[in-house]
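Q: My labmate handed me this sequence with no annotations at all. I'd like to see what the chain might look like in three dimensions before we decide whether it's worth expressing. Could you predict it?
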Amino acid sequence: MKSAVANRVRAYVALGANIGEPVKHLRAAVDDMTALPDTLIVARSSLYRSAPVGLLNQPDFINAVVALDTALAPLALLRQLLAIEARHGRVRSVPNAPRTLDLDLLLYGDRQHNDPELVLPHPRMHERAFVLLPLLEIAPDAQIPKLGAARNFLPGVAGQSILRSEPI
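A: Here is what I predict for the chain of 168 residues:
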């Protein structure tokens, strides 16, 4: 049973996958996140299908965003997310390569963090429709520290291919 923790912070995690069974991996990752210590999932976006970015010759991605209330520190949460990726067969080869599961810590309250292991807010989140649309679905008033309202970046991603599908 999870302990009752008063000092939780709202964090947002982006999920993505495009090999194996992407929908199955994303749903299983959400289940895995429900078992994180001192953490509660408070919202889940729909699933979205998006075209790959960077390395284009690969299958489309399935993406989503989850909101967590957590007492884990940012680096502890990141390490838990990386362990979930590893359990789902994530292999890091080249940037933007196909993957069974990708979990990105987007926001951790209004915290800013910049070191080789973790950058908060996620440095490219405002440039990606596959992050902004699911984020705004569950948090329409989301703010990106130092940048402002996430919704203000929608015009900049309007040309990116993305399609909303089913609930996660």
